[in-house]
Design goal:
With 292 residues, this protein is an all-alpha fold. The chain has one domain (5-111, 121-287). The chain is built from 10 helices and no strands. Helix 6 runs antiparallel to helix 7 (151-171), helix 6 runs parallel beside helix 8 and helix 8 runs parallel beside helix 10 (264-287).
């Protein structure tokens, strides 16, 4: 079933309510602040000679320059598929999420934790995380740009991007996990608002893709290249994750089990963030028409 603009805006309202609820709990609940700080300490414990340099490289994907380059590439893919409105959606989503995340951090600045947490200081102006917002916005843009048959692969790749950037910023001591969740919700809310606008525009002024032979060939080539690229990314990610898990089980299983037992808040919150990212991306994908 294709969702109407009204239904998409209703979904955006639910996301906005969830954002406000998360804000209230993260700022006002002692128990939530304890859970946030405890999980944060678990992420910080992952720092080391191998993981820290990797996290620093991954987190760069959420920097303005990298976001602009990735967004421009996705917009070009949409244009090559004959979808100029989707290209505009991508650029608008990245711009609005960037501006709003920075504005909200300034407006919502609040010292949730006085002093240091495991040697790290969290700036009062940290909610929502700009990097997490940008990463989720790019993940959503990837899902929207792709044709329907490639969206499951796009969602997997996008979730990997969002979680990679998000876990990196927390493990580097930049943000609390709740800041990441706030960024996910902010990006998803804007996406639903823009999808509603896109759906309204399509209803009033139906978009016509190029019908020439050149346009058809362009779409076919771009979609095949996208399929190859997404498949390669998913396979590479699966191989890397499987290899890392196998090495951990073979060489450091007792250490890993002990770390998880000592940092249960970290395990719970990391799983919650992963499920949240997957659920939000799946929700956006299900809201799309077969040809959005």
């Amino acid at each position: 079933m294709v969702l109407t603009p009204r239904a998409l805006l209703a979904g955006a309202s639910v996301i906005a309510a969830a954002f406000l609820a998360l804000l209230g709990v993260a700022y006002g609940s002692p128990g939530a602040r304890w859970l946030d700080a405890s999980a944060f300490q678990g992420f910080l414990g992952l720092q080391g000679t191998t993981l820290t340099p990797l996290a620093e490289r991954v987190v760069a994907l959420g920097n303005p320059t990298e976001v602009g380059l990735i967004g421009s590439a996705l917009a070009l893919v949409a244009l090559a598929r004959g979808r100029p409105r989707v290209a505009a959606f991508v650029l608008a989503l990245l711009m609005l999420t960037s501006v709003s995340s920075q504005a909200l951090k300034a407006l919502l600045a609040y010292p949730r934790h006085e002093g240091l947490i495991a040697g790290s200081h969290i700036d009062p102006a940290a909610f929502p995380s700009g990097h997490a917002t940008a990463a989720m916005a790019m993940a959503i843009a990837l899902v929207v740009v792709m044709p329907s048959r490639l969206r499951p692969l796009a969602a997997l790749s996008g979730a990997g991007l969002a979680l990679g950037v998000s876990f990196s910023i927390v493990s580097l001591g930049w943000h609390l996990p709740s800041d990441v969740a706030g960024g996910y919700l902010l990006a998803t809310g804007w996406a639903l608002v823009l999808l509603a606008a896109l759906r309204m525009a399509d209803g009033l002024f139906p978009e016509r893709s190029g019908r020439s032979r050149v346009a058809a060939v362009s779409r076919s080539v771009v979609e095949r290249l996208a399929a190859i690229g997404l498949t390669a990314v998913v396979v590479a990610g699966a191989v890397a994750a499987t290899g890392a898990a196998a090495l951990g089980v073979v060489f450091r299983l007792p250490d890993l089990v002990g770390y998880a037992q000592d940092h249960t808040a970290f395990v719970v919150v990391a799983a919650w963030l992963a499920l949240s990212a997957a659920a939000l991306l799946a929700g956006v994908a299900s809201a799309l028409a077969r040809r959005v």
